[in-house]
Design goal:
Number of helices: 4
Structural class: mainly alpha
Distance between the termini: 64 Å
Largest sheet: none
Helix content: over 70%
Oligomer: single chain
Number of domains: 2
């Protein structure tokens, strides 16, 4: 039961802040991030007193946070390049007249 408690705490923080109109969904996501950092901190401080299966090897350190932020930045950069490429491609199709040519071939 104890291994579900961190997830429950984060869920209550996020959904509770939206339900009681304390935060918008975007702000609630930020609160969820802060709650997860708080849960990590609690597990680090009390890791000798808390014995939860599957979490003993997990450790909270700033290198792990920095690595997670770097990987997040890489993934977001890739997604933004895909979006930028699709915008350039759609403009190229529009300027070449390919879209009008395709529409003119369709039956009325």
């Amino acid at each position: 039961m104890l291994y579900v408690l961190p997830l429950f705490v984060i869920f209550v923080v996020v959904v509770g802040s939206i339900f009681f109109k304390l935060a918008s969904p975007t702000e609630a996501a930020g609160l969820g991030c802060m709650a997860s950092l708080g849960v990590c901190f609690v597990f680090r401080v009390f890791k000798n007193k808390i014995q939860v299966s599957g979490i003993e090897g997990a450790d909270f350190d700033w290198r792990a946070i920095a690595k997670a932020l770097l990987e997040t930045a890489k993934i977001n950069t890739m997604i933004l390049f895909i979006i930028a490429g699709s915008l350039v491609f759609s403009q190229a199709l529009s300027n070449s007249g390919a879209t009008q040519g395709l529409l003119s071939t369709s039956p009325q």
